């Protein structure tokens, strides 16, 4: 296929001449307009700000620092995330640590001027808004990834383990509140709310992180992997329902808590009875045409915002509305896959680092000082592990799994990760958690998530070593 011949020199000359004439005519016309308007008088200014002065300078300075903070946080999150993946750790651990390092716990302590320039207090509200939007979208993605068919597989193993992994840490966490409350809480926080939140924060399992660990190790389709995913799915739904309940009680006065819970039940019923059939009909239509348009994406996002807005107005958190809408979209549908593909990179790479930075600015590890505070932090970690690991492993053992498989289930269910941080930030926003206790709970979330992969590696290696002699014995017998 031949290309078009280049224009002749005469044609080029005419084009340049025409362009020059247009520029000259435009300048001349503007000069005429300017002279004609020189004598016009406009109304007096209605604001005290003078032309060319005032808020724009402050706005530009804040925008500069927000953009700088986002760039630094994204780079730090990606680098530490890759480093932790190289050590066979979940990338989210590195990303969380990156946010904490840039905050007052490390950079703010050893280089306060640098920290104050990169993350000045003025950017906190803007990062907070970005973080909230990012977490709402992330919870929608978590709902999309949730295979609700797992919830319908009512095997006795799944039900026993999932319930034990919620109830045991909840009870232990609420009991531990009896000792923790007088030391790190305040008198304006009712003990009942504090105990509810301590129990809930001990009960969380990071469903996305657990699924990623199983996939990275190639055991997501084994019997243990399927059991762990099923239990985590049930755990996730139960934990977020409990969170909605706790938030509704914490936000409402005693007389209004029942109304809030009743409205939440009505909201869930409408989502399941009305919205889900509409979504299933839309999914079938898109499966036929094999295409998800921008119009469809816009409608889903508007539905996401309205669902989040509804739960926020009811008195539970906007996250619950985002999660439930994602959960009722059919898991394997083209619509779910398309929405995940379009949103995941923006949320994970751009918006979640803002959440990590915002969390890091609120986490002051220095508040956990002295033997007493570190003792409390250690007790929180032990209670969290005993409740989650112990409850899950014991239930798995009682349902017929051997000791190593039961321990594997317990270790996996003890993974908390980003989901725990979301719960903790809500607790800090509601002032149920003090800054000191918030820092302790962040340490607990990091320790329990960090411990999952190395312990799982030891358990799997032990399983392989047990299997090898039996294979050798079989070959000798056959020989």
Number of strands: 0
CA radius of gyration: 28 Å
Broad CATH class = Mainly Alpha
Q: At CATH's second level, what is the architecture?
A: Up-down Bundle
Structural class from helices and strands? mainly alpha
Kindly report how far apart the N and C termini lie: 70 Å
Task: Count helical runs.
Answer: 19
Question: SSE string, helix = H, strand = E?
Answer: HHHHHHHHHHHHHHHHHHH
User: Hey, roughly how much beta strand do the residues contain?
Assistant: under 5%
CATH topology: Na+/H+ antiporter like fold
Q: Which outline best applies?
A: globular
The description of the largest β-sheet is: none
Q: Return the average pLDDT rounded to an integer.
A: 83
Low-pLDDT stretches = 473-479
Helical proportion?
A: over 70%
**How many separate domains?**
1
């Amino acid at each position: 296929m031949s290309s078009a011949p280049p224009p002749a020199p005469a044609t080029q000359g005419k084009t340049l001449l025409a362009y020059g004439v247009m520029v000259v005519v435009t300048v001349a016309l503007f000069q005429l307009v300017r002279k004609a308007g020189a004598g016009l008088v406009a109304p007096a200014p209605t604001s005290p700000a003078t032309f060319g002065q005032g808020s724009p300078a402050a706005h530009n300075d804040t925008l500069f620092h927000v953009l700088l903070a986002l760039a630094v946080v994204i780079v730090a999150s990606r680098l530490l995330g890759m480093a932790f993946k190289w050590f066979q750790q979940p990338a989210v651990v590195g990303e969380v640590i990156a946010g904490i390092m840039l905050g007052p716990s490390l950079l703010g302590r050893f280089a306060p001027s640098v920290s104050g320039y990169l993350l000045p207090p003025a950017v906190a509200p803007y990062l907070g808004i970005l973080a909230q939007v990012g977490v709402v979208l992330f919870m929608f993605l978590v709902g999309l990834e949730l295979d609700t068919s797992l919830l319908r597989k009512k095997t006795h193993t799944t039900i026993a383990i999932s319930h034990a992994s919620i109830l045991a840490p909840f009870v232990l966490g609420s009991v531990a509140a009896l000792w923790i409350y007088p030391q790190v809480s305040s008198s304006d926080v009712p003990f009942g709310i504090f105990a509810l939140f301590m129990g809930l924060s001990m009960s969380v399992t990071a469903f996305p992180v657990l699924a990623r660990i199983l996939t990275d190790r190639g055991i997501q389709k084994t019997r243990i992997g399927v059991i762990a995913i099923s239990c985590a799915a049930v755990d996730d739904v139960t934990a977020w329902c409990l969170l909605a309940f706790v938030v509704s009680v914490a936000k409402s006065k005693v007389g209004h808590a029942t109304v809030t819970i009743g409205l939440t039940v009505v909201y869930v019923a409408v989502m399941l009875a009305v919205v889900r059939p509409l979504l299933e009909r839309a999914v079938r239509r898109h499966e036929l045409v094999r295409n998800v348009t921008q119009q469809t994406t816009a409608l889903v996002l508007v539905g996401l915002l309205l669902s989040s807005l509804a739960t926020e107005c009811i008195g539970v958190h906007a996250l619950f509305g985002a999660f439930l809408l994602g959960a009722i979209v059919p898991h394997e549908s083209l619509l779910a896959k398309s929405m995940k593909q379009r949103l995941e990179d923006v949320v994970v790479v751009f918006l979640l680092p803002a959440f990590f930075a915002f969390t890091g600015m609120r986490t002051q590890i220095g508040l956990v000082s002295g033997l007493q505070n570190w003792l409390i932090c250690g007790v929180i970690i032990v209670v969290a592990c005993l409740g989650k690991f112990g409850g899950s492993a014991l239930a798995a053992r009682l349902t017929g799994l051997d000791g190593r498989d039961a321990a594997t289930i317990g270790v996996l269910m003890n993974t908390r990760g980003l989901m725990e941080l979301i719960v903790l930030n809500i607790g800090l926003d509601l002032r149920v958690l003090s800054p000191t206790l918030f820092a302790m709970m962040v340490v607990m979330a990091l320790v329990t998530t960090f411990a999952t992969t190395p312990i799982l590696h030891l358990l799997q290696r032990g399983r392989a070593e047990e299997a090898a002699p039996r294979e050798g014995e079989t070959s000798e017998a056959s020989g």
